[in-house]
Amino acid sequence: MKTATNYIFPIALIVIGGALLILGAQQGQNTWVMLGAALALLAGAVSLLLQLGIITKSMGTIIGIVFGLGAVFLAYRNYRSIAEVIEFNEQKRENDRLVIQGLKDIRTAQAGYKQSNGTYTGDLNELRNFVKNGRITMVRAIGQVPDTLNEKEALQLGIIVRDTILAPALDSLFLTKRALDSRVYDFNPDNFIYSPVKKDRMFLLQAGSILSSGRNVPVFLAKDPAPMVVGDTLMVGSMEKANTAGNWAGE
């Protein structure tokens, strides 16, 4: 004879499965979580039908095996769905790290180009040619400033003199010790205009000028050509204001 205790487990599974379905829908849980909740509800329903004698024990066993295999599969898929999010986030962090370095290189090259030409360029090939073959006017101090004087005083007294030279853009911008120490990957003057992640895709580059405080001010904007997340594009500079900052954290 069936007693009330025989129905506790099936009813509990039905209640728990139904509650999980409702909560999952409200919280926007993924498909695998929702399927797991539905499986628990169905398992409770089958168990209840078995207790009521509506289905046979052998049929209940077959259904139980099928549900058991389904539960194992759903548990694995739920684990993978979580692991995939973690893996994606790790991949995006590495992707962003590389792209940010590439955008910084574009900015450095543009700064040197502007110093030499008075404006920015919107042509990546022209920017690459400048880095490889261009020169930048550099002012260096010849002589040593005494400890008792500052540089301005030493200049006035003739202890040091300033000399203007034309230095190779590549050496001045990218091959100094300070520039090399802070890099994420080695600088290559031939391909720095390409994304370090999508190596066949050039960065997107614009340049122009805006009116600011009554004068024309050069501006540029460089963007990641292939962001991992639509709407989350890494970029540096602006076409709307005189700003050469990047849009990433810590910039």
Describe what this molecule looks like in 3D.
This protein is α+β, with helices and mostly antiparallel strands. The protein has two domains: 4-90; 92-237, no CATH class. It is built from seven helices and five strands; from the N terminus they run ααααβαβααβββ. It has helices at 8-27, 31-51, 57-117, 124-133, 151-156, 169-174, 177-181, and strands at 135-142, 161-168, 204-212, 215-223, 235-237. It has a three-stranded antiparallel beta sheet with strand order 3-4-5, covered by helices on one side. The chain has a two-stranded antiparallel sheet with strand order 1-2. The mean pLDDT is 82.
Number of domains: 2
Helix/strand/pairing class, anyone?
A: alpha+beta
General form = rod-shaped
Strand-and-helix sequence, N→C? Answer: HHHHEHEHHEEE
Helix amount = 40-55%
Q: Strand order within the widest sheet?
A: 3-4-5
Main pleated-sheet profile:
3 strands, antiparallel
Strand content: 5-15%
